[in-house]
Write the structure tokens for this entry.
Amino acid sequence: MKSTTHPSHHPIRHLLIFVLLLCTSSKPIHAQNSYNHDGGLYGTAKDISNSIIEPIRNGVKKSYDGMSDKGRFCVGMGFGFGCSRVAIGTTVKAVKTVGAAYIAFEALEYAGLLKEARANKNNQKIVEQSRDYLLRTMDGVRHDIRTHLNPGNVKRRIDNCMKRDKPGTVGFGTGAFLGFVL
């Protein structure tokens, strides 16, 4: 027997609304703390994405606020599960990529190709510029991670979410726990 669900009660739709709401619900860290990312890729991407996402955030928030407590819990649980799985997958891929890059550069060094590249003055300038750009980008990421994962900020954020949306927050925690365990 085929079940019919009202279009506004479709669980995937609720999950997508919640995902968009959470992804866009906080202001950029550098705006809150007056931190300048110095033109690194990460800061530039954040600045561009925040200006695009603001109108979407308002519509998603309106839809999410209209959900029942059970809907918020289910959407939170799905989002928590998805986020934990993405975090695990991303971490594993990052470790693999860094390991492969290290091995590749060691092989290039052993073969003498990196020494040849360093001998050229133009290549040295490009390497220095690339290094500086990469360091600026990584510094922005480091700053934002440090700010977001500060235990005081995490506790305050959880407390605020529990006051504002207890079912969604409990659902997110439950889903994240299941995602890490399974």
